[in-house]
Amino acid sequence: GGGTGERESSAGTGTGLDGGARRFIFGYHPHGMYPAAACWFHLTPQFAALFPSVPSPVTLGASVIFCVPLLRDVVMWAGARSVSRGVFLRSLRERGAVVLCPGGQAEAVEHVGGDGDHEVTLCTKHRGFIRIAIEEGASLVPVFVFGESQATRNLLKWKAAQRWTYKRFGFPMPFLPGGWKGFLPLPAPLPLSFVVGGPVAVPPPGPDGRAAEADVEAVSRLYYRQIEGLFARYKASSGFPHLTLVLKHD
């Protein structure tokens, strides 16, 4: 994007980011076409100034992108790792903080993008990151990025085929990103505004060390309720007063 701005919201519950909790899972929203800023927003001076005691998170990406030549090299160069459970756990325990896009490829299917898109759709069905947060005692920190949806769009919009290929192969096709100058496969140079919410505390796991499904559901509701609050509170000041937020639960 052409510029960044970061603000810490006082919304949410739980321990502050600068004390108490030892581990943090940052949820990056929305996914968009390809959420490249998830690799670098936490490297900005603003992030370091707001959260001096939080280590720079490890960025976790869809496993399928690590199977694509060149793309795999780019994301690995940027420091990203696969979002597989084993890598997720190892990264969280080693670094103490990770960032991932909970909406995943399913959200990319719903993405329209571009200046004419006035709706942002978040897919909420993925709960694995919430389950890990409970089992590892990590606080969940929502991050909403205004401008992410507008920076790129899929020039080939065929949702039926994209949903089928996503379910079959793990990646939505056909896929032809366009952003810069309207058709080049690079994000348009738009300002991005990063809004970071307060950490959502999680309950402890059960006696067997596993998260109870009722707790996963309750934390999910609280987490996405905070995202709705961040969106409503900051969309106008971020330059997107026309945007609406849709939560897709299936």
What does this structure look like?
With 250 residues, the chain is an alpha/beta fold. It is 31% helix and 20% strand. The chain has 8 helices and 11 strands. The protein has a 7-stranded mixed beta sheet. Helix 2 links the parallel strand 3 and strand 4. Helix 4 packs antiparallel against helix 7. The protein is globular, with a radius of gyration of 17 Å. The chain starts with a strand and ends with a strand.
Layout of helices and strands:
Blueprint: E1 3-8, E2 24-29, H1 45-50, E3 58-61, H2 71-77, E4 81-82, H3 85-95, E5 97-100, H4 104-110, E6 119-123, H5 128-136, E7 139-146, H6 148-151, E8 153-154, H7 159-169, E9 177-178, E10 191-196, H8 213-234, E11 244-248
Parallel strand pairs: 1-10, 2-5, 2-7, 3-4, 3-5, 6-11
Antiparallel strand pairs: 7-10, 8-9
Helix pairs in contact: 4-7
